[in-house]
Write a structure and sequence with these properties.
Function: Secreted tripeptidyl-peptidase which degrades proteins at acidic pHs and is involved in virulence.
GO molecular function: metal ion binding; serine-type endopeptidase activity; tripeptidyl-peptidase activity
Radius of gyration: 24 Å
Enzyme class: hydrolase
Catalytic activity: Release of an N-terminal tripeptide from a polypeptide
Shape: globular
Bound molecules: 2-acetamido-2-deoxy-beta-D-glucopyranose
Number of helices: 16
CATH superfamily of the largest domain: Peptidase S8/S53 domain
CATH architecture of the largest domain: 3-Layer(aba) Sandwich
CATH topology of the largest domain: Rossmann fold
Distance between the termini: 58 Å
Oligomer: single chain
Keywords: Calcium, Glycoprotein, Hydrolase, Metal-binding, Protease, Secreted, Serine protease, Signal, Virulence, Zymogen
Strand content: 15-25%
CATH class of the largest domain: Alpha Beta
């Protein structure tokens, strides 16, 4: 134990760590798999700088999460549809007092007075304000100040890895701030905003749906003949045989998540509805403001409004006047918000789960800046909808595996509670945002050779939604292909998440019948990792109104809210006959009960990283998943389930 390199690092530090070393040897607790080239360590952190050290304790029963989820989501399970109350979820996963005792004892033995150690109210994490040198000793690591090439903030983070005594490591999930760019130093002033590490992809201008326009050749009357050029509400209704009048809207709910500074423009909704869904003129989404989320229409750049306008014009337009759509507007105008900020508001137990959020990826309130949100970070209290659609995507390398696994577990918990979580699968084909791919050593770079999966669609407890198109010159009744309109459906195999049981057969069939023609190291060819997307919906040439003008947009950004609207109608019909909402749909759509229900997409591909990507083929494929909706068939199958 004493002769390790680790000991040498410790010996240079304080005496703090020596005591813990006598208890058990240190092990690597978490290490950086890769770091985006945009982060550069500029200097060692000053020893006296104070850090909000947070230690997330391991939850009980987490290893059974998938089993519990399948129990309520698999159509063959006797408990199908018997979703859990949030209190049952919180109780089932609460960390044990044994874990708490061991971690606390380690901190005290290491020389931290117990008066400095705070326990969160739910017992999920321990918190202490420590100096950089104390943290370096406790975690056997070195802190550096990092600068990003893309944003105006400095972060404090460990280099490479951090360590914990073996007997402590077993009971800890995550320690922050460590590897995840948690501790923000100061804001440099810079006019060019691009978006910070933890902010969902589309917050940066280039990651929204691909937009063409303004366009002049818009015809409202002949739109069904024109669906190959421009998708409108009637095209989508025709494509997916989607006609439905809500009957249980008082029981039903549908949520769209948007991240400030993105916002929608109310008058644009009316101009859109005027042409395509007159009865909706004057209707607005029901806004739930999270962490100071606000509808700011003062920006002049249309990029601020494309995503929200698209999502709301199409989800509201399709569900119709009877069914309110809830808009979750996340984050204030200064530090904005992230997926985790949203999840905290939906499920208060997530705020402290595994040590809580990552303080730099995720926004922490109150925000002291002028105009910033002055309340605390919202924990719980936001209404839980039955369906949530999110059209934002991260590259897998934007985040650490631990960060993604923590968030992914939360999606499983939402599924346990009966929520359907939909995420756009990304618009770069097998590449990530802005065409970034993986280098041989796991960095993100343009022109790199390896495929870049997108998160959260690669989380096995999320339904990843890819994009299709009506082929050029084709009719709305012709089979669709994978979308190839300047955007390509995100898809492939995760490098972080293992393959869930529900998709094994479908994915194995693809791998055996249509083996991808690529060297085994440019994609995750193990056959053991999560494959996505799960399903697809048209994502090509949507007409939207932004700032009073008509544009054509393409992207999985469009596909996800449209699927949400269609699934919401299924929920409506089930709720109307006293059944549960459909919840986590993946085990159902991959099951024998759903054979032949979706329209199989067998043409097109998702190029990226200098390749043709994967090919759509009969059955599941990593471009369009199992295919596109056929609403009447989906409805009848889901009504047959208990
Ligand atoms: C809607 O109709 C107006 C005229 O009533 C027209 O100027 C506008 O381009 C139309 N928008 C769309 C999206 O078709
Ligand atoms: C937008 O501008 C108006 C008028 O200048 C101002 O009153 C309002 O506070 C601004 N809204 C936001 C969200 O900044
Ligand atoms: C939040 O959005 C605003 C408006 O675009 C931007 O100026 C700011 O830099 C963003 N903040 C962060 C922390 O990304
Ligand atoms: C492939 O995915 C698995 C997760 O299922 C992961 O453990 C493995 O490291 C990945 N391979 C590469 C080369 O990233
Ligand atoms: C396949 O898609 C391409 C467009 O991407 C289209 O030109 C072609 O006609 C399609 N073929 C079939 C059989 O649908």
């Amino acid at each position: 134990m004493v002769l390790t390199r680790l000991f040498l690092i410790l010996a240079k530090g304080l005496s703090l760590a020596a005591a813990s070393l006598s208890l058990s040897s240190y092990v690597v607790h978490e290490s950086r798999r890769s770091i985006s080239t945009r982060w550069t360590p500029v200097r060692r952190a000053e020893h006296g700088v104070l850090l909000p050290l947070r230690i997330g304790l391991k939850q009980e029963n987490l290893h059974s999460l998938e089993e519990y989820l399948l129990d309520v989501s698999h159509p063959n399970s006797p408990n199908y549809g018997k979703h859990w109350a949030s209190t049952k979820v919180a109780e089932t996963f609460r960390p044990s007092s044994v874990a708490l005792g061991i971690v606390r004892a380690w901190l005290v033995d290491s020389g931290l007075e117990s008066s400095r150690i705070e326990l969160s109210s739910t017992g999920g994490w321990l918190h202490a304000t420590v100096s950089v040198s104390e943290a370096e000793s406790l975690l056997a690591t070195e802190y550096y100040v990092y600068q990003s090439s893309e944003e105006d903030v400095e972060y404090l983070a460990c280099k490479g890895a951090y360590h914990l005594p073996e007997h402590v490591s077993k009971h800890v999930d995550i320690v922050t701030p460590t590897l995840h760019f948690d501790a923000k130093m100061k804001r440099r002033t810079s006019p060019e905003f691009v978006g910070r590490g933890g902010q969902p992809g589309t917050s940066s201008r280039s990651h929204g749906p691909k937009v063409v326009g303004p366009i002049e050749d818009v015809s409202v009357s002949t739109e069904l003949e024109d669906c190959n050029n421009q998708i409108t509400l009637p095209c989508l209704r025709a494509l997916y045989k989607f006609e439905y009048a809500p009957i249980a809207s008082d029981k039903n709910s549908l949520g769209i998540a948007e991240y400030t500074p993105q916002a929608y423009i109310p008058s644009d909704l009316d101009q859109f509805f005027q042409n395509y869904s007159k009865s909706l003129v004057g209707e607005r989404p029901v806004m739930v403001s999270i962490d100071g989320g606000t509808i700011n229409n003062n920006e002049t750049d249309k990029a601020f409004f494309e995503e929200s306008n698209l999502d709301l014009q199409y989800s509201m337009g399709l569900v119709g006047k009877g069914q309110p759509v809830t808009l979750y507007q996340v984050g204030d105008l200064i530090i904005n918000g992230t997926f985790n900020n949203f999840l905290d508001a939906l499920d208060g137990s997530y705020c402290t789960f595994e040590g809580g959020d990552n303080r730099a990826f995720d926004s922490t309130y109150p925000d002291p800046a002028p105009g910033g949100f002055k309340g605390p970070t919202q924990c719980g209290g936001a209404p839980l909808p039955y369906i949530i659609s999110t059209s934002y995507v991260h590259d897998e390398t934007d985040l650490t595996p631990a960060y993604m696994q923590r968030q992914c577990a939360e999606y499983a918990k939402l599924g346990l509670m009966g929520v359907t979580v939909l995420y756009a699968s990304g618009d770069g084909g097998v590449a990530g945002n802005d065409g970034r791919c993986l280098t041989d050593d796991g960095q993100a770079a343009e022109g790199a050779p390896r495929f870049m999966p997108g998160f959260p669609a690669e989380c096995p407890y999320v339904t990843g939604v890819g994009a299709t198109q009506v082929n050029p010159g084709a009719k709305v009744t012709d089979p669709e292909s994978a979308c190839e309109q300047g955007i390509f459906s995100g898809g492939g195999w995760s490098n972080v998440f293992a393959m869930p049981d529900y998709q094994k057969e479908a994915v194995q069939t693809y791998l055996e019948k249509y083996p991808p023609p690529y060297p085994a190291d440019i994609w995750n060819s193990t056959g053991q990792s999560r494959a996505f997307p799960d399903i697809a919906v048209n994502g090509a040439n949507y007409l939207i109104v932004v700032q009073g003008k008509v544009f054509r947009v393409s992207g999985t950004s469009a596909s996800s809210p449209v699927l949400a609207a269609i699934l919401s109608a299924v929920n409506d019909a089930r709720l109307a006959v006293g059944k549960s909402p459909i919840g986590f749909i993946n085990p159902t759509i991959y099951s024998a009960a759903f054979e032949g229900v979706l329209n199989d997409i067998t043409n097109g591909s998702n190029p990226g990283c200098g390749t043709n990507g994967f090919a759509a083929q009969p059955g599941w494929d990593p471009v369009t998943g199992l295919g596109t909706p056929n609403f009447p068939k989906m409805l009848s199958r889901w009504l047959e389930l208990p």
